[in-house]
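Components:
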Amino acid sequence: MSPAGLGRFLARRLGIGAVLVVGITLIAFILTHLVPADPATANLGQSALGDPAIVKAFYHEYGLDKPVPQQYVIYLWKLLHGNLGMSEQSHRAVATDLGQYVPATMELALFAIVISVIVGVGLGVLAAVRRGHPVDGGLRVFSLLGVSMPTFWVALFVFYLFFFRLGWLPSGGRLSPGLVAPARVTGLYTVDALLNGQWPLFVNALRHLVMPGAVLGIFTVGTVLRFTRASVLEVINNDYVRAARAKGLSEWTVIRRHVMRPALLPIATVASLAFGSLLSGTVLVENIFSWPGIGEYAYLSAINLDLPAIMGVSIVVAIIYILINLLVDLLYSVLDPRIELR
Amino acid sequence: MSANGRPETGPATVARPRAADSRPTGPDNRRTSTGSVLEVENLSVALRTSHGIRRAVDGISFSIGAGEILGIAGESGSGKTLTALSLLGLLPLGARTSGSVRFEGRELLGLKRRQLREVRGKQVGLVSQDPATSLHPLLRIDVQMTEHVRAHLGFSKDKARQRAIEMLTAVRIPDPETALFAHPHQFSGGMRQRIAIAMALACEPRLLIADEPTTSLDVTVQAGILRLLDRLRRERGVSVMIITHDLGVLSSISDRICILYGGRVAEYGVTPAVLGTPRHPYTEGLMRSLPGASAAGAAMVPIQGAPPSLDSMPGGCAFHPRCEWARESCRTTVPALRSLDDGRQLACDVDPLPARPAQVSPVGRS
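Structure:
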């Protein structure tokens, strides 16, 4: 693929992405206004609600007294200028809130997806190579458990075991109390701590990541394991794998170079889908482990009918999805030279 | 029986000098002067099927001399591909082999995986049926052409690449330097098979096993691949074992030919003799079913019925249900493989075959 071709592809896809984001704001906007509830009820106190003047002022403050189509146009206009509006519950700019919470969630989600894809692919290959062997059977049970155990139950279990019983891991939060977050570069504490050379801080942040990351990732491990096993088994009987063996290559080389390359194609798709479900899983996991992320923020804004915040979260999640899909398509063309980016 | 056979050996003995003329280095001479590269004795392959364990290859023996081309022919299910795979230990899981496979005097059956890897690719090259599936679709040609050279011969990246260019030139790939940086889907079927052959030859093995190397290719391309194999064995002295169901392919280039049926050897001998005057009803049937091989004007006649499956192997001679000359004894007794006067081996008790009105014309090297 020529650089110019790649440039055209990226421009096209990012253009489509922008249209998609606008479409998603429309859907989110309609959905939030369809909900038969009153933001004033959710955000104002009992006595304030009794005073029509205060309720009116509230409506005026957030632009809710205008017709809905006009509200949407105003919202889009502000969005174009990077203004996501004010949150009705935190009374801060939604952009500020997102800037604080999104990196926390990204750190957790990226940690979970990277670890679970590595573990899932590794175990999946092992199961495929040892198919029919007890190892294979054990791994299949494990993957079944991984995909069928409810997240809240796993969360409570590991919480009980590793925090309460064994005391190996901290109970929640991103850092131990009293520690100061590293100077912000990416907003991911582990990465920033490393960039600043603060080794003990890195270890502390990593220890806080382990439990929520594992709970969040266990479903993905199970899914990736099963798809990897199936994908490897499909590839391993191909003529070209036999041809590689006939060339006298070591089994490791055959698996690594000749089997994994084509087997990774479907796994990339599964992993990208898993990342989506993993993001929705953050709502629960962040709640349990007091992780100050976007999942927790989305939950609070939803129950409080904080419209600007809900819109902001929707846009962020949409952008993440669009970027992940773009990344997978790029990965496909890297893995398979026959695929042309268009 | 042999007394009856005398008149029939007439044409065969006539055919032999002709063969010797056209081939200055006759296969038999070559064998005695340089010895065999590969000697297969009493090779059996048992597979586990849903009905139990079945012998797909049942005690076959053959040998290949240095620089010789041996053709192994038979319909699908005759055990020819399993034979080839068993030589390199590439059989599917659960398959069991017995007998003996000696490559340059070294027993291959029962070798440890590490030792087997030393033979694979380095001393014996394998070319598979369909280059569209046997070349890795996602790996560049240079990776596929050099990885085993580097592993077996310890070549540096540059040296291995030089070897790859040399091999691609030998199989007449135009512009080999550029070809190295391409992927398989950028080549035509014939070019891919040439690349596959170059790949199999890259470590300069002594034996090349070609499993139906021309089956998936156009007829015109087929001829090119066959000429290539013939030239490679002359120039490089590599022995070739060609597995095919197409006797037309073998008639033009193989020195000797081994016809398999139901996992056993039906007929085995010098190509012009076996194809010119077939003595086994199956060989004769294969020749008659070959377009253009029969006498001018004679219609091509297919063999009736279908080859037996592993689970329904007939008793006695496996071919008897399809054989028009089958006798009562053929149903009960497996015919022994015996040597005839012209050096061929034959497993048929109906000998000589009754004459036909429209005789099969001898097919030799053209």
